[in-house]
Amino acid sequence: MNIINTRIQQLREKMKALKLDAYIVPSTDPHQSEYVCDYWKVRTYFSGFSGSAGTLVVTANEAALWTDGRYFLQVEQECAGTDVHLFKQVVPHAPEHIPWICNELAENAVIGLDYRQFSKSQIDYLLGFSTPKNIVLNHQPHLVNEIWTDRPALPSEKVKVHSLEFSGESTASKLNKVKAEIENQQADYYLLSSLDDIAWLFNIRSTDIDFTPLVTAYGVVGKEKSYLFSDTNRYSSELIEVFNTLNIEVLDYDLIADKLPELSKGKKIVTDAASLNYASFDAIEGEIIFQQSLVQQLKTIKNEVEIENTKKCMLKDGLAMTKFFMWLEDELKERAISEYEIGKKLTSFRKEQPLYKDDSFASIVGYQGNGAIIHYTAPEKGSAMVENKGLLLIDSGAQYENGTTDITRTVWLGGEVSEEIKTAYTSVLKGHIELDQMQFPKGTVGMQLDAFARMHLWKQGLNFPHGTGHGIGSYGMVHEPTQGFTSNMTTSRGAEAHKPNQFTTIEPGCYKKDTYGIRIENVVVSKVNEINDFGEFYGFEALTVFPIDTQLIDVTLLEKSQIDWLNNYHEKVYNTLSTKLKPSEKDWLKEKCKAL
Amino acid sequence: MNIINTRIQQLREKMKALKLDAYIVPSTDPHQSEYVCDYWKVRTYFSGFSGSAGTLVVTANEAALWTDGRYFLQVEQECAGTDVHLFKQVVPHAPEHIPWICNELAENAVIGLDYRQFSKSQIDYLLGFSTPKNIVLNHQPHLVNEIWTDRPALPSEKVKVHSLEFSGESTASKLNKVKAEIENQQADYYLLSSLDDIAWLFNIRSTDIDFTPLVTAYGVVGKEKSYLFSDTNRYSSELIEVFNTLNIEVLDYDLIADKLPELSKGKKIVTDAASLNYASFDAIEGEIIFQQSLVQQLKTIKNEVEIENTKKCMLKDGLAMTKFFMWLEDELKERAISEYEIGKKLTSFRKEQPLYKDDSFASIVGYQGNGAIIHYTAPEKGSAMVENKGLLLIDSGAQYENGTTDITRTVWLGGEVSEEIKTAYTSVLKGHIELDQMQFPKGTVGMQLDAFARMHLWKQGLNFPHGTGHGIGSYGMVHEPTQGFTSNMTTSRGAEAHKPNQFTTIEPGCYKKDTYGIRIENVVVSKVNEINDFGEFYGFEALTVFPIDTQLIDVTLLEKSQIDWLNNYHEKVYNTLSTKLKPSEKDWLKEKCKAL
């Protein structure tokens, strides 16, 4: 029997024994993380599907996997030969399986699930559908372990301090801001579940999750004493000592379950319903004040030290990209290279840079038509062979101890460029420039700004099916809340107003199935441009420093202001990178940065 | 004693007798109309304030008037010497008085109000605040009449058929669409409360409300039989006969109160909670299915006949504007003219055009700094004297039997133009052009498009504090739901996607207090531009035909595509209007339409 089917079979047997009519396996961990450590890859274990988003629902007759358009092809491949049945989500991340389950199940049915993997908000949503049919939820924290006997351990790597030199603000100072909010809410504690909130507040980093330097933990801030629930073996005695001086006690991760009822009894706790898991919610015995994460709001505004450090790490990233693209051009004269090898080689160039820790996500190296697959991953075996012709899209980034990068360039490797591609590329570039150089009043939200990145594509009858950009951390999450650019007003990336000193990506694109994929992405920092009688006006400044391929531009489509932008950008790129380059590299870069 | 204070005193005496602790007087009628007939000007009667938006709340100690920034000055003037106390609303139309009332009143207090003047949604909102304090609502349909003994009668003008020649769709055809929806909802009746929905569906017009050709009525559509509740004396026997053939019975307006319980008992009724008044809601004995007005959705898509007729009426409006502006230029050489006289004269030129019925709103004629008052009305006595220098803003429009117009032009009357004004004017014009010539995919909403009208102002550190445009009817409401352009996502103008064949205004502006007001407004129709692999793309076409003043333009700020747009527009204006003009008028227009 197929291994996945065996596992589903084992799950059904357990369900039967426990009188569960359905079991829900989500993709997340107890912290609502976007990416999770191996221990929490439960949905992958039971379905075979390894994508970042998707939910498996197992009933007596169905093994229903819900995911969105990015992953349909991947599910087809990874779940081939299994009983897993793909349900195509219309809206990514929407809980479209919930109405389905409650419709499938009979009255008084029982749904099993691990409360730790569901946020308070998600369970509330589920209850809205289940309650009218008297369908009951049943918390099962041990069921998975009983089946998955060789489940990987939780991360054990040492926890490192994110030093003041890079963070720009001490834990003491950050804690004081949270304590002020506790006072403000007339509360006693602030509970943090989100790993990136915890990493920021306590200035700690580790390697728990691929590409994301976070530490598995819960945090509780009190007016006097604070707690970090995390594997104590991972903390050096020096770090424990530092925390002690700040009145922070480190307790074992699992102790949260016992300590929460004790701490909260008769007290008021402020927390965020979107990241609080339902097991923690259940354990709180006091009053809860739900509030959008304050730490998220603080973290998204970068301080001067973070901005200066990110500029430094962008320089390093630009140097690595320069060396990599020089290598690629040279090598392609000799031989064809697989997309997979190109991705590995790019990582190797980044690794040479000081303070490099990891890539910030799995590089997307998409040649010709593969560039049109938005979340493409070149397979280790059998990926397309790149030659010195056609279009190559590379979306990549890294985690440096002094910042996080994310850059996409689409380059022409040789041969004749079609008018179609030139028009699409130039329109993407115009959209990128339009948004980069936009000035906008305080209060302008992501959905409004998103339109500027699309307008030149729209005028050509083109568009792209993804958001235009996301917040990005400082040696933190490559997709960091809250702001961004998207045409979806129901997400924070669409609805949040941009504020000064935030890091955001600008990444419009254009994709034609099996033909081409184009995307041009920089990270920008927002800033105050002017304050006058009409209000405060903000703008952006590009942080990413690497040339944008000019071979693909149809210059007749550019306005003078757009040509000026590109020439100024390339002048800045050259001036920033060239001092750190060897003569031959300088020459190469000079050519790439030549004014239009 | 001041007359207003006397009325408030009389109201307080009645309230005391009826044991009411507060009485709420809103600005609307039983149909949630934006403008109301004299009979329903109850808030004006009790407060003295005549603006279109505002709510008076009378308690034993307070006469609190809530209105927004457009009207602060007007309230100061109109309510001077009275006990009326202005409460400044932060958000226009927001029910900010509701929390205030429920905070002021003690537990178990009683609020009096006429349920007919409140929508179901508004009462639900009020109950949300009143219920926790056990504050009770008390319906008072007769109280106002007992005080306001010389209250004007309801409108009595004959009802006219809006003929097929202008409407482009028969009542029978429209009724069938509503009946299909009744079937679709497995319901029995469709109840209409909104006067413009009723005027559209039954193809009727009259003069009940200033500037708006609507008929006071309720409509009920049944699968077999339909009803129009409206003053039967206003309907000719021929019209009654026509309605009879369509199985529509006309019953007296007040009969709705008796007939609704009878018709609805044991039945399902579809209606719109936003326009259904609470008295009607209370009278329904069957099941109610709430739904955003279907008729509103149908009405906003114009048919070919309506589009062709609107083009014809835009031509007439352009001719009237041409004759008017020629007169104004000539006359200003001789004498200064008051803003008020200019407004009257403009109306007189429009009246000369065939099928003219009324102005579509009170013309805004704002000279120099008065142009900065967005809802300015020049007073009959003492309005500013316009001379042949400086800036004049005129926002005006008309109701013709074949369409509705709304146009704003800002013109330079002579003297030196400052750089500041040229920059602001050119930026407004660029925003207007940007939105007019935008192409956008299906699904794009008003909030996204709004940004294009602002971007060039933003880049200059400028902005304007109002929406960029609104839907407009076809011999209907000058502000017609649902679509529009605004940066507020909580309104339908921000949240609704634009669809082909809708009429919308584009009217960006720029205002500096006491200095200048600039606005450039056209009506546009939306259309399908192209359908390709990337989806459906829509665009706009200007319907308004009248030159845009080029004296105020700083040509160095315009891109070539913007100059092309303006030259093409002026060519179209000249070609459209000139065939109907006398030689001297043609010459005048030719000069105004000269290419840049």
Describe this structure in words.
The structure is a homodimer of 596-residue chains. The first copy, chain A, has 596 residues and is α+β, with helices and mostly antiparallel strands. Chain A folds into three domains: 3-147, Creatinase/prolidase N-terminal domain (Creatine Amidinohydrolase, Chain A, domain 1), CATH 3.40.350.10; 160-294, Creatinase/prolidase N-terminal domain (Creatine Amidinohydrolase, Chain A, domain 1), CATH 3.40.350.10; 304-592, Creatinase/methionine aminopeptidase superfamily (Creatine Amidinohydrolase, Alpha-Beta Complex). Chain A contains 20 helices and 30 strands. In chain A, the strands form nine sheets. Chain A has a six-stranded mixed sheet with strand order 4-3-2-1-5-6. The first copy, chain A, has a six-stranded mixed sheet with strand order 12-11-10-8-13-14. A four-stranded antiparallel sheet of chain A has the order 23-30-29-26. In chain A, β3 (63-67), α3 and β4 (85-88) form a beta-alpha-beta unit. In chain A, α16 (419-436) packs antiparallel against α17 and α19 (560-578) runs antiparallel to α20. The radius of gyration of chain A is 25 Å and the shape is globular. The relative contact order of chain A is 0.08. The mean pLDDT of chain A is 96. The A-B interface holds A 438-441, 444-445, 447-452, 455, 458-459, 461-463, 487, 489, 495, 512, 529-530, 532-535, 537, 559, 561 and B 438-441, 444-445, 447-452, 455, 458-459, 461-463, 487, 489, 495, 512, 529-530, 532-535, 537, 559.
